[in-house]
Structures are given as structure tokens and as C-alpha cells.
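sry for the spam today, last one i promise. C-alpha cells for design, 221 residues
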């Protein structure tokens, strides 16, 4: 092949390479555009006036629970705001609701501030007197986690209390529990010093792997 022929052949190869590169770039751009289009625009929100109260929690059905300034638990669902009263106490604060409509909160009674679970029109006073109206949640099994007395975190499940460990700390508060019974909260004082957020993960004592996970969790704290 002559020198001029080699040059022409090389030019054709460069032209083909440029075409392939251009095609690849177009494919990438089209792919990105397709992905962006699939995500769609950001959702728009309407605003609904629920009435004059302090909302605290919302479940997956859009039901909202809270309390009034007068200390009554209020329940909003499908456009209707219902006053559920003081749960048998003098003043009540609702702080959580699960997908079954069970409500958790605290109320002021003659014994101090105690915890309640409201289910199907009936309030259950589970006791566990505490020193403040702490906010806490309720999972879809009806279990709650909060604090008792001057700062001992607990889990209430199936009618029983389980006190949660505080690794050398003076006080603790459990704030919420999920459907896997993992709990989040905070500890402070004692060996902990400043306040620190914690997560409690359940494990079985008779399972070696679980023991290792639990030991690791305690060491991390």
C-alpha cells in the first residue's frame, strides 16, 4: 500500500472511531435522560387544616394524633377531629400512633405522670410513673419504649416490662421502638459523661453469633 493509501486508510479509521465515540456519548446521555424522566418531578403538596391542637405523630394511613392545650388527646382521621379526653387522668399528651390506630402517650394522675396505650376506644394505664411528659412512639405490635422514674429506659411488650441496660450511665431515655424491637434513645451522666444517642438491638442469649453482636454493640457504646 502506498503512503497516500495508508494516510487515507488511517483517516477512515479515525472517522469510524469518532463516529463510535459519538454514538456512545449519545447513548449515555439518552440513558441518563431516561433515568431522570423515570424519577419524575418532585411531589407537590396540598395543605389541610386539621384544627387547633398540637400534632405529634402520623401513621401510614395519614391519621394524626396529638393533644390540645387543655390536655386532651385529639385524633384526626378522614377529615374528622375527635376529642378522646384525658385517658382517665387529669391531663394527657399523645405522642405516637401505629398503623392499627393504637395511641401511646403520658398522662397526669394522682400517682404522677404515667404511660397509657389507647386501643379501640379504651385506655390502658400501664403505670411506669415518670418525671416528665416524654415523647415516645409505639410499633405495630403495640409495644412502647420510654423511661420510668428518674431515667431508666424500658420496653413494654405483651403486658410485661423489660428494663434496658445503661452501660455505666446515670440516666437513659428510650424514645422509639420499631417492628423488629430495635430501640433508640439516649443516655447521659456517670461514665457516659455528656449525652449520647444509643440504639438497642435485641439478641438471644443462647445464640453464640447473637452474643457476639450484643457484645460488640456494648463495646461500641
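last one done:
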Amino acid at each position: 500500500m502506498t503512503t497516500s493509501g495508508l494516510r487515507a486508510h488511517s483517516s477512515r479509521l479515525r472517522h469510524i472511531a469518532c463516529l463510535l465515540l459519538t454514538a456512545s456519548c449519545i447513548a449515555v446521555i439518552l440513558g441518563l435522560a431516561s433515568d431522570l424522566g423515570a424519577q419524575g418531578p418532585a411531589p407537590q403538596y396540598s395543605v389541610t387544616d386539621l384544627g387547633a391542637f398540637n400534632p405529634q405523630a402520623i401513621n401510614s394511613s395519614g391519621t394524626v394524633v396529638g393533644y390540645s392545650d387543655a390536655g386532651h388527646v385529639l385524633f384526626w382521621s378522614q377529615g374528622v377531629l375527635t376529642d378522646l379526653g384525658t385517658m382517665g387522668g387529669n391531663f394527657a399528651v399523645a405522642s405516637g400512633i401505629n398503623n392499627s390506630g393504637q395511641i401511646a402517650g403520658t398522662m397526669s394522675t394522682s400517682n404522677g405522670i404515667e404511660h397509657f396505650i389507647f386501643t379501640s376506644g379504651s385506655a390502658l394505664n400501664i403505670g411506669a410513673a415518670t418525671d416528665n411528659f416524654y415523647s415516645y412512639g409505639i410499633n405495630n405490635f403495640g409495644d412502647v419504649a420510654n423511661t420510668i422514674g428518674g431515667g431508666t429506659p424500658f420496653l413494654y411488650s405483651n403486658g410485661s416490662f423489660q428494663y434496658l441496660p445503661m452501660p455505666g450511665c446515670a440516666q437513659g431515655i428510650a424514645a422509639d421502638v420499631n417492628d423488629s424491637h430495635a430501640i433508640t434513645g439516649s443516655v447521659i451522666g456517670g461514665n457516659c459523661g455528656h449525652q449520647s444517642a444509643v440504639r438497642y438491638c435485641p439478641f438471644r442469649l443462647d445464640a453464640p453469633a447473637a452474643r457476639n453482636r450484643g457484645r460488640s454493640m456494648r463495646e461500641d457504646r
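The CA atoms of residues 104 and 117 lie 5 Å apart. ok im logging off now
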